[in-house]
Design a protein that fits this description.
The chain has helices at about 45-55, 60-65, 65-70, 80-95, 170-175, and strands at about 10-15, 20, 35-45, 100-110, 120-130, 140-150, 155-165. By secondary structure, it is of the alpha+beta class. A hairpin with a 6-residue loop joins strand 5 (about 120-130) and strand 6. The longest helix has 17 residues, at about 80-95. It is built from five helices and seven strands, in the order βββααααββββα. Helix content is about 25%, strand content about 35%. A five-stranded antiparallel sheet has the order 3-5-6-7-4, with helices on one face. The protein is elongated, with a radius of gyration of 19 Å. The two termini are about 30 Å apart.
């Protein structure tokens, strides 16, 4: 005898007793004013700073030289701001734009506090606008505002982002096995 199991939040039922995690939201799920808190947090490591700074070609001593940066007002290396943007932006994808067709742009990027190795970042995103695409039938354009916070709840980065999402998220999930 099979007992019906209720669908857990964040999943979709694909068969009796079988569920798949939901990645990304569709146009109709991303209502203006919706605020999403992104978890888990992410602690920035020395490896993050070294590898990503090297990949980006930014060898400024404030990020890579402990002796140099130890003599600055910060007293230690700063995590490169592009790493902060990348990690906080990445936190938002699973829930907001996991089904995206394309990013349209990042605007109004502001780094409001320094980030150091050992800081733990979390983020929250507010949907600030949405409209149907005039050039891509079946898609909508979502605009959002994200704030990345450190472990003390202090904002370290803010930015706006626009991206395409499908109007019919369930159709995309069915076609792509998501």
């Amino acid at each position: 005898m099979t007992t019906h199991i209720p669908t857990p939040a964040g999943f979709r039922r694909i068969a009796e007793g079988r569920y798949r995690e939901v990645v990304g939201l569709g146009y109709h799920e991303l209502a203006e004013g919706l605020v999403i808190e992104h978890r888990p947090g992410r602690t920035i490591t020395e490896a993050d700073n070294v590898v990503m700074t090297t990949l980006g070609g930014n060898d400024a001593p404030i990020h890579t030289d402990a002796h140099y940066s130890g003599l600055t007002q910060w007293g230690r290396p700063l995590v490169c701001s592009s790493i902060t943007l990348h990690i906080v932006g990445g936190m938002t994808v699973r829930s907001t734009s996991g089904l995206t067709i394309a990013n349209l742009g990042f605007e109004s990027i502001r780094f409001t506090r320094p980030v150091f190795v050992g800081d733990t970042l979390c983020a929250q995103t507010e949907i600030t606008g949405r409209r149907l695409s005039r050039s891509r039938p079946g898609t909508g354009i979502i605009t959002s505002r994200t704030i990345g916070h450190n472990q003390d709840g202090k904002a370290v980065v803010t930015f706006s982002r626009s991206f395409f999402v499908p109007i019919d998220a369930e159709d995309v999930r069915d076609r792509t096995n998501y």
